Amino acid sequence: MSGGTVYQRAAKRHAVLIEHLSGDATEGFLLVPIGVALEQYIHQIEHVFPLEALDGRRLYVAMSGVKFIAPREDEGAPPPPPPSAREAMRDPPPPKPSAASRSPEENAAVARRFQSVDAEAVRRREQAARELVERQRRERQKRVADERRRRREEDPDAVAAVNLLSVPIDAPIEEVQSAYRREVKIYHPDRLRGFGAPEEDIARAHERLTVLNRAYQVLAALETEGAEEGEPSAAPS
């Protein structure tokens, strides 16, 4: 941006009806950026927002005094030309209609429009909260996995243990337990005896079980150490 030029995002005029906490009502136009829904824009307003009144005046409305904002049925209709100063002094504008001056059917219609806007805002907030929780959960899992990988890579016995159990270096303790139990089931002496394996194979299986037990104990000890340092993990069994 140079030469004092000011660029403004293209916006669309939305005709709205504003019900104030005082009971008054104001009709006018909100300029909403193109691509943004009116309901989304309304719920992004925090304090004060500009409003183009039907008589052409530029008003600044405080959200603290607004009960609800709903789209007008005549949305898109051009506003009437502003009255001249002489006409304004001779014929003051009529008072704005309040909720008490409208029929019950009109009030119900306005309330339904506002409820639809509010329900959509609630849905968007809940969806954003769920996405935030899920993003935080994934980031926390990644931090835990990175810390587990670092501790195991610094321990040669842990590296040998994960290679023996054929699990990733950052595998959680639950995956380590599953791999350990699978290997124990394969090399258990009672199972081999039931298949009629020779004693030489049973002796080698017993040695394999001893190595597997030592490997699992190394990884379980590192997991317990990480839990004591503040990393959540499942208790080894």
In short:
The protein has 237 residues and is α+β, with helices and mostly antiparallel strands. The protein is built from seven helices and five strands, in the order ββαβββαααααα.
Counting DSSP H or I runs of 4 or more residues, the number of helices is 7
Low-confidence stretches: 1-8, 232-237
CA-CA gap between termini: 65 Å
Summed up, the domain count is 2
Strand content: 15-25%
- Classification by helices and strands: alpha+beta
How can the largest sheet be summarized? 5 strands, antiparallel
Number of DSSP strand runs: 5
Helical fraction:
40-55%
Radius of gyration: 35 Å
Average of the residue pLDDT scores: 78
Written as H for each helix and E for each strand, in order along the chain, the element string is EEHEEEHHHHHH
Shape: rod-shaped
Strand order of the largest sheet: 4-3-2-1-5
Describe this structure in words.
With 237 residues, the chain is of the alpha+beta class. It has 2 domains: 11-75 and 82-128, no CATH class; 155-228, Helix Hairpins. It is 51% helix and 15% strand. The protein has 7 helices and 5 strands; from the N terminus they run ββαβββαααααα. The chain has helices at residues 38-42, 85-90, 104-153, 156-165, 173-187, 189-194, 199-228; strands spanning 11-20, 25-33, 48-53, 58-62, 66-71. The protein has a 5-stranded antiparallel sheet with strand order 4-3-2-1-5. Strand 3 and strand 4 form a beta hairpin. The two termini are 65 Å apart. Mean pLDDT is 78; it is low at 1-8 and 232-237.
